[in-house]
C-alpha cells in the first residue's frame, strides 16, 4: 500500500508527480520533497515559496519542516530568506545529529554552506499584493493578516516508510521573525511509521496551543481511524479555545495511517485537500464541519476552474 494526503488544492500537481515515485517503489521522502518543491516553485501560490506573501517589512520569510517516521529524524527551518526550496534544506537538516531546527541567518548560513540555491523570493506580484493591502488597511481598516495556507503532506511508501512535511510563507504582513506552527514538531506536523502521520494548516498561533498533529497521531495509536482522530482533535481544540478565549482561529488537519487510510477535519468552510493511494488517482476534495463531523466531496470543474483563474488573474496596484 502507498499514498499521499496533502492540504489545499495547490498540492495536486506535486502529488500527481509524487505518486509516480511511490508507484515505482520509491521512497516516501523523495515523493514528498519533490511534491512540495512543485508548490514552492509555482509563483501564483502566494502562501508558499516563490511568490509567497511578505512580512510587514516586505521580506519573504519562509518556514519548512521534514520528518521521517521510521527514524524519527526531524529537520526544520524558520524565517529563512532568499533560498528557493526550504523543504530541501529542512530535509538536509534532518540528517544532522544536532542543530535540526535553524532560524533566520543561521538557517541561511547553513543553506549557503551546503550549496542550496539562493534566490530572491519576492515577486512583483507579491509586491502588488503588499501595497494593495497597505492601502486597504488605511482606507477600510482591514486586518493585515491574511493568507496562511501551509502546504502540508503525509506520505506512505510500499516499504512502510512514512514522511510528514510542511512549507509556508506564514501570515501575510506578519512581524519580522514570526514563526507559526508549520516548522514546530507536534504542532505543524508529526509522523511515526508504526502508526501514521498528521499535518496542519490554519492559524499557527492557535494550532500550537493544542500540539494538534501529535495529538492526532496519539489518537491513531490508541486505535482511532484517521478520520475519527482528526475530528476528535480539531473539535476538542476548537471548543477549548472558544471556551477559554472566546474564539478559535482556523484549524484544518490531514492524516494518514500506516495502512493508507486517511482522515481530514476542519473548523472552516471550503478547506480543500488532495489524496492519492494505490487504488486512487489524485483527487481534490472540499471539506467542511457540520455539527462536529467533517463532510467532504469532490471539487467540481467550476470550482477548479475558478481556483486557478483567481490565482493567476492579472493584478493592478490600487
Topology, please?
Layout: E1 3-7, H1 12-23, H2 28-41, E2 62-68, E3 74-80, H3 86-93, E4 101-103, H4 104-113, H5 124-140, E5 151-156, E6 162-168, E7 189-192, E8 196-202, H6 204-207, H7 212-221, H8 226-245, E9 251-257, E10 262-266, E11 271-277, E12 280-290, E13 293-298, H9 301-312
Parallel strand pairs: 3-4
Antiparallel strand pairs: 1-5, 1-11, 2-3, 2-6, 5-6, 7-8, 8-9, 9-10, 11-12, 12-13
Protein name: N(4)-(Beta-N-acetylglucosaminyl)-L-asparaginase
Organism: Clostridium rhizosphaerae
InterPro entries: Ntn_hydrolases_N, Peptidase_T2
Mass-distribution shape: globular
Mean pLDDT: 96
Structural class: alpha+beta
Strand content: 25-35%
Domain count, please report it.
1
Name the CATH class: Alpha Beta
Extract low-pLDDT stretches. none
**In angstroms, what separates the terminal alpha carbons?**
51 Å
Protein name: N(4)-(Beta-N-acetylglucosaminyl)-L-asparaginase
Organism: Clostridium rhizosphaerae
InterPro entries: Ntn_hydrolases_N (IPR029055), Peptidase_T2 (IPR000246)
What does this structure look like?
The chain has helices at 12-23, 28-41, 86-93, 104-113, 124-140, 204-207, 212-221, 226-245, 301-312, and strands at 3-7, 62-68, 74-80, 101-103, 151-156, 162-168, 189-192, 196-202, 251-257, 262-266, 271-277, 280-290, 293-298. The protein is α+β, with helices and mostly antiparallel strands. It has one domain (3-312): (Glycosyl)asparaginase (Glutamine Phosphoribosylpyrophosphate, subunit 1, domain 1, 4-Layer Sandwich). A 9-stranded mixed beta sheet has the order 4-3-2-6-5-1-11-12-13. It has a 4-stranded antiparallel beta sheet with strand order 7-8-9-10. α2 runs antiparallel to α3 and α7 crosses α8. The longest helix has 20 residues, at 226-245. The relative contact order is 0.16. This is N(4)-(Beta-N-acetylglucosaminyl)-L-asparaginase. It comes from Clostridium rhizosphaerae. It holds the Pfam family Asparaginase_2.
Amino acid at each position: 500500500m502507498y499514498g499521499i494526503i496533502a492540504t489545499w488544492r495547490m498540492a495536486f500537481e506535486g502529488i500527481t508527480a509524487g505518486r509516480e515515485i511511490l508507484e515505482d517503489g520509491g521512497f516516501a521522502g523523495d515523493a514528498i520533497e519533490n511534491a512540495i518543491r512543485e508548490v514552492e516553485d509555482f509563483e501564483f501560490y502566494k502562501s508558499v515559496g516563490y511568490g509567497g506573501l511578505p512580512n510587514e517589512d516586505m521580506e519573504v520569510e519562509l518556514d519548512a519542516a521534514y520528518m521521517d517516521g521510521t527514524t524519527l529524524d526531524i529537520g526544520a527551518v524558520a524565517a529563512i530568506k532568499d533560498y528557493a526550496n526550504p523543504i530541501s534544506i529542512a530535509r538536509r537538516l534532518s540528517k544532522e545529529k544536532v542543530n535540526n531546527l535553524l532560524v533566520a541567518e543561521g538557517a541561511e548560513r547553513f543553506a549557503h554552506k551546503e550549496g542550496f540555491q539562493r534566490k530572491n523570493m519576492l515577486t512583483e506580484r507579491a509586491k502588488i499584493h503588499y501595497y494593495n493591502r497597505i492601502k486597504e488597511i488605511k482606507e477600510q481598516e482591514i486586518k493585515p493578516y491574511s493568507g496562511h495556507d501551509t502546504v502540508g503532506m503525509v506520505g506512505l511508501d510500499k516499504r512502510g516508510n512514512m514522511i510528514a512535511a510542511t512549507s509556508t510563507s506564514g501570515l501575510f504582513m506578519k512581524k519580522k521573525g514570526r514563526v507559526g506552527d508549520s516548522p514546530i514538531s507536534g504542532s505543524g506536523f508529526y509522523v511515526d511509521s508504526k502508526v501514521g502521520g498528521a499535518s496542519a494548516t490554519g492559524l499557527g498561533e492557535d494550532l500550537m496551543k493544542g500540539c494538534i498533529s501529535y495529538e492526532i497521531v496519539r489518537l491513531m495509536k490508541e486505535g482511532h481511524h484517521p478520520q475519527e482522530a482528526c475530528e476528535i482533535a480539531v473539535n476538542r481544540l476548537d471548543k477549548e479555545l472558544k471556551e477559554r478565549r472566546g474564539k478559535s482561529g482556523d484549524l484544518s488537519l490531514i492524516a494518514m495511517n500506516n495502512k493508507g487510510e486517511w482522515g481530514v477535519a476542519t473548523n472552516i468552510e471550503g478547506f480543500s485537500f488532495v489524496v492519492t493511494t494505490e487504488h486512487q488517482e489524485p483527487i481534490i476534495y472540499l471539506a467542511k464541519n457540520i455539527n462536529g463531523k467533517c463532510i467532504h466531496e469532490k471539487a467540481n470543474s467550476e470550482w477548479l476552474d475558478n481556483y486557478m483563474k483567481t490565482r493567476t488573474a492579472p493584478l493592478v496596484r490600487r
